[in-house]
Amino acid sequence: MDFLKKHYEKVLLGVVLVGLAVAVAFLYLKSASEQEELEAKSTLLLRPKVPPLTNLNLTVPEGSLKRLAAPAFIDFASTNKVFNPMPWLKAADNRLIRSDKAGPTAASVTNTTPLYLRITLDSVSLSADGTAKYVIGVQKEASAKPSDRSKRQYYCKLN
């Protein structure tokens, strides 16, 4: 007993050190098992087992497509004034006129002229090496930009 009274601090320190060693060993083994569990969960999330697809029931969409093959035409614009009331405009002399008698809907085509794409061979010349150079003119009358409607010349040669 005398020995314990003299050296109790050393014994206590030894017990604490042994406890710490056991805790370190336990944590090492526990971290390995946790790592395995995390890998198993990640493989389960990244590569899940997918059940095979079953046959789709397409009877409803196919029936809808068959009904849409010949759609019903209902004209709510021109004859039915409940859903599309007729707008009226005031003329210069303060009388009311229907909107289809004025504006863009009243416009009519009086003359049509075709717009052509003209491609012409303007000239042929020989270069110094003996190959032929061609000057081709292109005029796009139907172009959206007015600057593109004029004739442009392009130079080309074979091969």
Summarize the structure.
By secondary structure, the chain is α+β, with helices and mostly antiparallel strands. The chain has helices at 2-46, 59-68, and strands spanning 88-90, 96-98, 117-126, 132-140, 152-157.
Report on this model:
With 159 residues, the protein is of the alpha+beta class. It folds into three domains: 8-42; 69-106, no CATH class; 117-157, no CATH class. Helix content is 35%, strand content 19%. The protein has two helices and five strands, in the order ααβββββ. The protein has helices at residues 2-46, 59-68, and strands spanning 88-90, 96-98, 117-126, 132-140, 152-157. The strands form two sheets. It has a three-stranded antiparallel sheet with strand order 3-4-5, with no helix packed on it. The model has no long low-confidence stretch (mean pLDDT 89).
List the main descriptive attributes of the protein structure presented here:
alpha+beta, 159 residues, 3 domains, 2 helices, elongated, two-stranded antiparallel sheet, 5 strands
